[in-house]
Amino acid sequence: MGPTDPTTTDPITADPVTADPVTTGPLVVLVGPPGSGKSSVGAALARLTGTPLRDTDTDIETRAGTTIAEIFTGRGEPAFRELEEQAVADALAEHPGVLALGGGAVLSARTRARLAGHPVAYLSVSATTGVQRVGLASHRPLMVGVNPRATYRALLADRVPLYREVARWEFATDTESVADLARAVADAVALPATPTPAEGQHR
Ligand SMILES: Nc1ncnc2c1ncn2[C@@H]1O[C@H](COP(=O)(O)OP(=O)(O)O)[C@@H](O)[C@H]1O
Ligand SMILES: O=C(O)C1=C[C@@H](OP(=O)(O)O)[C@@H](O)[C@H](O)C1
Ligand SMILES: [Mg+2]
Fold it and tell me: What is the value of ipTM here, to two decimals?
C-alpha cells in the first residue's frame, strides 16, 4: 500500500472526516495483528532512529499494576479495551517517538478516528506465520484456546480492513527480518537514521 488519503468516519456523527496530517505526536505508529512484530520492529526502529519507544501494552500494565492476561481474566476484555483506548489516546497526545499499539487497538472506532492524520504503518503477517510467532503464549490471552489457528484466522478476517483503514503504509513481515523491516519503515516514513556507536565501529 502506498500513501493513502487518511479518510475516516467521525465516531459521533458518522460523517466522513478527512484529517490533515498532524504536526505533533509520534514519528510513527505501528499497527498489525499479534506476532506481526510491532513491539520488536518498534524497538529496532527506536534504536535505528535514536528516538524513544512506547508500547501501549506496557503502558496499560504499568497503569493497572498487573499483566494483560490478569486484566483479561479478572476484569474481562471490554475493561481491557477501555484501558487500551485511553492508553492510545494519551500516547498519541504525549509521545514524540516510535509508538507500538496492541493488535486489537484498532477495534475501537474512537481510536481509529484519533489515528487519522498520524503516520501509521501496518505490519501484516499470514495466519501461518502469525500463529508460529505467538505460539501458545499465555500472555496473549486472546490466543489461548483449542484452535489457535482458527482463532487467528478469524481475528485477521475481522481486523485486516481496520488496519488498512488507519494505515498509510503496509509491510508484509513473513519473510523479512526485524532489522530490515525497521529500515524499510524508517525509509517510507522518512525518519532520519542515527548510527549507533556499534554501527559506527564498522565504518
Ligand atoms: N520479522 C520477524 N521475523 C522473525 N521473527 C519475528 C519477526 N517479527 C517478530 N518476530 C518474533 O515474533 C514474536 C512476536 O513479536 P512481537 O514484536 O511481540 O509482535 P507484536 O508486538 O506485533 O505482537 C517475537 O518472538 C519476535 O521475536
Ligand atoms: O490482538 C489483541 O487483541 C491483543 C494483542 C496484544 O498485543 P500484541 O499485538 O502486541 O501482541 C495485547 O494488546 C492483548 O493481548 C490483546
Ligand atoms: Mg506487541
Answer: 0.99
